[in-house]
Amino acid sequence: MTPKDCIVERTMRMFVSHGIRAVRMDDVAQQLGVSKRSLYELFGDKEGLLYQAMVRYFDDSRRRWAELSAGAGNVLEQLFMVLGDVMDRSEETGRLMDSLKRLYPAVHDKLMREGSVRNREELRAMLRQGIADGLFIGSIDIDLAISVLYYTASALVSRRDLLLPEGISERKAFVQIVSTFFRGISTAEGLRLVDAYRARYE
């Protein structure tokens, strides 16, 4: 890892722990033992450092998803694992993105655009794999399915004030709603697996 990468990594952890507003360039310089001048030469300003730190945050998420789902039996189980982790970490991610939207809207919008492209590409590959494996029906419109799943998951993650029936946890609600989506595009074998994974990952 280069010195610049180390700065990005450690600063990302500071933003996660203390909040974006609270972390100043002075704090980064002091905590990391580098000069403010070096920080400005490397990143331009706090916005430049913040952008790179948040890119690292989402790259770390993708690495974690790959590790988490390495033992999945099929792409459907992989989707349950990844989406469950998204839900479990939604409070932290939502807090960071809400702060970005308020304080650094240009950074927020750039990350959202870039993230949407990557997420859609990954979902497209997974849905195609599910079709090839006989878990999803081949006649689905993949791009429409991606939009429904992406925006449903995004809404559930960002709307933590969602009114839920008494006694149902956010995770259980999330798994139930995602399961309903998968049931709608599944073959008979896919349906069997959806029901099994729903019971396991709630």
TrEMBL record:
<keyword id="KW-0678">Repressor</keyword>
<dbReference type="InterPro" id="IPR001647">
    <property type="entry name" value="HTH_TetR"/>
</dbReference>
<dbReference type="GO" id="GO:0003700">
    <property type="term" value="F:DNA-binding transcription factor activity"/>
</dbReference>
<dbReference type="InterPro" id="IPR009057">
    <property type="entry name" value="Homeodomain-like_sf"/>
</dbReference>
<dbReference type="InterPro" id="IPR050109">
    <property type="entry name" value="HTH-type_TetR-like_transc_reg"/>
</dbReference>
<keyword id="KW-0805">Transcription regulation</keyword>
<protein>
    <submittedName>
        <fullName>TetR family transcriptional regulator</fullName>
    </submittedName>
</protein>
<keyword id="KW-0804">Transcription</keyword>
<feature type="domain" description="HTH tetR-type">
    <location>
        <begin position="1"/>
        <end position="61"/>
    </location>
</feature>
<feature type="DNA-binding region" description="H-T-H motif">
    <location>
        <begin position="24"/>
        <end position="43"/>
    </location>
</feature>
<dbReference type="InterPro" id="IPR036271">
    <property type="entry name" value="Tet_transcr_reg_TetR-rel_C_sf"/>
</dbReference>
<dbReference type="Pfam" id="PF00440">
    <property type="entry name" value="TetR_N"/>
</dbReference>
<keyword id="KW-0238">DNA-binding</keyword>
<dbReference type="GO" id="GO:0000976">
    <property type="term" value="F:transcription cis-regulatory region binding"/>
</dbReference>
